Amino acid sequence: MPEENSEAIELLYQNIGSLPDSEFGAINLLPFAVDSDQTNALKRKVCVAIVNLFQNNGFPMAKNTTPVEPERSVRMNCHKCSTTLLTTQVSNDGVANLPATAMIATFAKLNPECPHNKLTPEDHRRMIEEAVLASQGNND
Fold first, then answer.
1. 3-state secondary structure string, the chain?
2. Cys bridge to 27: 10, 19, 69, 116, which one at CB 3.0-4.6 A?
3. Do 86 and 131 reside in the same domain of the chain?
4. How would residue 134 be classed by pLDDT, with cut points 50, 70 and 90?
5. Which structural domain range is residue 77 located in?
């Protein structure tokens, strides 16, 4: 194992069985989530291969010693009622990487009218009933 890659390999080795993820909390990769001599040997070989693949294709694998830029927390509020619709971390360059599927699904569940409460099945039933009644009234 090349000395220059040892920190990257060790970091990957310690985390490859259960990779941290902002949407799922952790992504468990089998068989690496299982602790055994054979699995650990395979896990070490896979980690070395991954790090070498990145390094051999031009990705720097040296540990960055510059301090990490702190992120700031921002809120997205409704313009009309000031209800907070989303709170997230944004880097200093203004980028917020969000799990889009979860965010869109959450927004889809909110009432578009103020206040922005979660829509219940009863709310959906009522809206469908109102739409049907409105369409029947237009046919007369």
1. CCHHHHHHHHHHHHHCCEEEECCCEEEECCCCCCCCHHHHHHHHHHHHHHHHHHHHCCCCCCCCCCCCCCCEEEEEECCCCCCEEEEEEECCCCCCCCCHHHHHHHHHCECCCCCCCECCHHHHHHHHHHHHHHHHHHCC
2. 19
3. yes
4. very high
5. 72-138
Query: 6-15 vs 37-56: helix axis angle to the nearest 10?
Result: 130
Q: Which residue, among 119, 76, 113, 69, has the nearest Cα to 91 in the 3D structure?
A: 69
Are 118 and 42 in contact by the 8 Å Cβ rule? The answer is no
Please provide the distance, in angstroms rounded to a whole number, between the alpha carbons at the two ends of the chain: 81
Q: Say which residue the tokens 């889009």 belong to.
A: 100
Distance CA 134, CA 132 (A): 5
Instruction: Please indicate, yes or no, whether the overall pTM of this predicted structure exceeds 0.90.
Output: no
Residue where the block lists tokens 């395979």? 42
Asked whether residue 108 is domain-assigned, the answer is yes
Given a contact cutoff of 8 angstroms between Cβ atoms, the answer to whether 32 and 75 are in contact is no
In a domain, 37, yes or no: yes
Is 90 found in the same domain as 132? Answer: yes
